Amino acid sequence: MAGLLLGLLTVFAGPGAAQAEPSPSTVGDVTAFAADGPVYRLTAGRTEARVSFVSTETFRIELAPDGGFTDPAGTDIALPQGRPPATRWKDRGDRFELSTSKVTLRAYKSPLRFALHRADGTRLWAETQGLSWTGDRTTQTLARGADEQFYGAGMQNGRGNTSHRGKTVEVGVDYNWNDGGHPNSVPFYLSSAGYGVYRNTYAPNTYVFGDPVTTTAREQRFDAYYFAGPGMKDVIGQYTKLTGRPFLPPVYGLEIGDADCYLHNANRGERHTLDALKVADGYVEHDMPNGWMLVNDGYGCGYENLAETAQGLRQRNMELGLWTEDGLGTLAEQVRAGQRVAKLDVAWVGPGYKFALDGCKDAYAGIEANSDARGFTWAPESWSGAQRCGVQWSGDQAGSWEYIRWQIPTYAGASMSGLAYTTGDVDGIFGGSAKTYTRDLQWKMFLPVTMTMDGWAASDKQPFRYGEPYTSVNRRYLKLHEALLPYVYSYAHEATRTGVGLARPLVLEYPDDPKAATEAVKYQFLSGRDFLVAPVYRDSAERDGIHLPRGTWIDFWSGRTYEGPVTVDDYSAPLDTLPLFVRAGATVPMWPGGIRSYADRGPGSPLAWDIYPQGSSAFTLYEDDGVTRRHRAGAYATQRAEVEAPRRGGGDVTVRIGASRGSYDGKSRARPYDFTVHTGDAPSSVRLDGRALPRLSGAAAFARAPQGWWYDRDDRGGVVRVKTAALPTDRAFALELEDTAAVGGAVPGAAAVATAPAGQELGAGTTGKVAVDVTAGSRDATGVSVSVDVPAGWRAAPVTVDRIPAGTTRRAEVAVTPAKDAKPGEATLTAAVRYGAAGQLRTAVQRFAVTVMPEPPSGDVWASDLVWLTSTNGWGPPERDRSNGESGADDGRTLTLAGTAYDKGIGAHADSDIEVYLGGRCTTFTADTGIDDEIGGYGEVAFSVEADGKVLWTSPEVTGASATVPAEVDVTGARHVRLKVTDTDGSKSGDHGDWAAARFRCG
Predict the structure, then answer these.
(1) What is the DSSP-derived secondary structure letter of residue 76?
(2) Which of 164, 467, 817, 931 has its Cβ near the most Cβ atoms within 10 Å?
(3) Other CB atoms within 10 A of residue 564 CB
């Protein structure tokens, strides 16, 4: 899509473009002063400045170099704020002081310079020189604090969740939807010093967070709002109070969406709009959540049978969406036919940001004017104010590991500008692979919104298209997101009051953490306060450099506890495992039962609470009908859960569920509750409002019983499972777990830890040894049994160890036999270590990856005919016996170097990394290397061969004009060989690196 519009963009550079810009003018001395309530005027010659107070902590500064104030944004962005605050002013001789009860703005007279102070005298910011301007720009220059950090500027691809200090940030539409671009820019930034600035303009901005800080808008007028607050959340709140709170999406909008073209689709052949229902059936048949479908997502796609399609989707618990390529003129008719989602074309940016913002507002309002639904729009380019009417997504990209990497900091960073709903397409719309799709989907399930797009890639990209194990892993995460919708929806409601979204940088919750502003945490984020997400963004089964801030953190999958601040390396993350941690004290509402859609729930459906007890904690659940706008008139309910537990170690845990306050259509009058309480120790009893609940014997008895409890030692370090019969929601109740513990157990640190060394290999049908390391905690581990759960058709024999002394590690080697037909590549195993410690029977679990190795070659073999254990590529998949093609497999051309065509070889695109298994049976690798002739002379790369972690050969830098570089490499005894193509000039354009006639000589 982007390519069709890039040609419309022109950079204007006339004959004088290279000439030096004229020196800027700077505001002079104050020559007159006038006060009119909350508005103050300062005159400096012919220049006029105006200060207007909006609230006790929000005010506006305008400067008109020619004395005439203008306001191009008008009421488009800044909303009416009600009665202004009481203000006062004083003449201090060298300055005027303009004050509210919270802040004082100093206006120095000679020359006019501003500085902001809190009421207690603390300085928030100060100009180092007066406001300045040229013919087309205005600039403010501020002193930079010694430790001051900066955030915001909207969606900044590849950055934003760590500090902008020392960097230049552009704010404006550039149609660069990849790393380094800035779609959905917002002319707002905030400082760790306790203030924020919004430039009230449609003009592009440039922020240089150097020393000093200079912020420039491309217009000869200055207009900025300033916000002061005790913390960054407060500043975001004030900014979104002015420009609009984030909207509350319909609950189906928080489920994954699907987009494709079903009419006149050049990539898929002739289809019809009703064919979308067949794809919708795929979600149903594979038991996968999906909330909505765009059925015309392609240029010139169009649609037919709209009402019938909408009805069919609704029968499958999905809603109809349309791409507004042709504008909004027919929106009313489309909404009446059933449209509930509007995706805005990039053309809505039009001649300026106002057009984009108006498109968002008009589409949102059009849905609401013609139905009882909530407005729900998506846009790839927007401006301040768009948070109140739509989702901002980062545009069209190609799926790859690199795509995952740079997207991680993007969306949490956007939350610092009040953009509560930001995302990217799962695995992009081009390229990608089964593995990158699965890894990308995992972490995006902890964003509030996401979408998968088909029709633009070489093959469809629904989450069920890749077969096993990918389909099962994708289902697992889609259903986890569905289960977490009560948590996500409660945060969505919170954003309507605070402006703070679900995806958050660590610094927003841990502003005093010294790493929170740094690159050390760039590739992780918080989902609400309670989940820390550290996505895997390389083709690896491990993750390094996970920073856990202060407090206790629990591995979501194993229950292992960590005491922060700590950096976790070598985290075992096989394909089905997203590195995910939960904050101790978390009380998480969930929908149990593995449902596929919010519509599967009824008024009597159970509610679950997943509780990690530590000290005093609470969570307020928000509920409404999920789809209409009646909540705006008060049709909603809240229910508060409060937990009291020991700060550490043993004691009682009390869970109090308050009465549900409020009402809405479909509200539960009574419902059962499920509780999972992570204690690490079995309680002596569990009481519901003082009455003992029956202790049940195990999972089967628990499933059958109407209410009761049992302690599951094998689940995540030990959890108490409790279920109740249906209880009235208008009454509070208390659950008491006696003689148990805070998360981590009655004897903190007593639990053992299971780990597995990386890089373990097995052969199909051959018995091998799998190593599991068991480290005892602060108490001896006794009666230790180590077993490994394996895939169907595999075999494993448990081993026993009598005792592991406290603090020591013992390695257990478990005999494992893969199935004879086990596919080469990664397989996930789970080690379970059962033992006794500190008077409790306990279980430690660890998921880990082993690699099933293919048969090593027994004779000479082409590299393109081998199994590739891993294959990372800079664009699309690497090709066998073809040059690098587009986004699909087998779409390249004949391999050609220096006029010579090759039948065999590998066509790659930097940065590329292909791993093959030789098993020590080969002696020599040979190939002709170079940039394919199809590139026409440009590109610049280097080739290298690595064996078992050692670099054996590296080419010189190769350009598109270089002669072919032959490679002959001794690989004697090598088990694993990696063939790499690396970009060498910082530009990956044209980096089509060929391993022509790549061959191993083997015996």
Answers:
(1) S
(2) 931
(3) 19
Model pLDDT for residues 765-811, shown as the tens digit of each residue: 999 999 999 999 999 999 999 999 999 999 999 999 989 999 999 99
Looking at residue 16, what is its pLDDT? 37
CATH superfamily of 251-466: Glycosidases (3.20.20.80)
Q: Dump pLDDT digits (tens) for 343-352.
A: 998 655 555 6
Indicate the class that CATH gives domain 602-741.
mainly beta
397 Cβ contact list (under 8 Å, min separation 6): 177, 178, 403, 424, 425, 428, 429, 430
Output the average pLDDT for the chain: 94
Rounded to the nearest 10 degrees, what angle do helices 470-483 and 434-444 cross at? Answer: 10
How many Å from the N-terminal Cα to the C-terminal Cα in the chain?
Answer: 51
The CATH code belonging to domain 29-243 is 2.60.40.1760
Q: What tokens appear for 353 in the block?
A: 């940001």
DSSP string, 248-268: ---GGGGS-EEE-B-SSBTTT
Q: In this structure, what DSSP letter does residue 184 have?
A: T
**The dihedral formed by the CA atoms of 343, 348, 352 and 356, expressed in degrees to the nearest 10:** -30
Among 113-117, 264-268, 658-662, which stretch is predicted with the lowest mean pLDDT?
Answer: 264-268
* DSSP-assigned states of every residue in 383-407: -TTGGGTEEEE----EESHHHHHHH
pLDDT digits (tens, 9 = 90+) for 555-577: 999 999 999 999 999 999 999 99
Angle at CA of residue 378, ends 282 and 426, nearest 5°: 45
377: pLDDT strictly greater than 90: yes
Cβ neighbours of 797 (radius 10 Å) = 11
pLDDT value, residue 10: 31
- State if pTM tops 0.90: yes
What angle do the packed helices 232-243 and 485-498 form, to 10 degrees? 70
- Answer yes or no: are the C-beta atoms of 260 and 295 closer than 8 Å: yes
The CATH-assigned architecture of domain 753-853 is Sandwich (2.60)
Note the Cα 6 to chain centre separation in Å: 27
Retrieve residue 582's tokens.
């939960």
pLDDT higher than 80, residue 17: no
**Second-level CATH architecture of 861-1002:** Sandwich (2.60)
102, two tokens: 């919270």
Q: Phi, psi (5° rounding) for residue 224? A: -145, 140
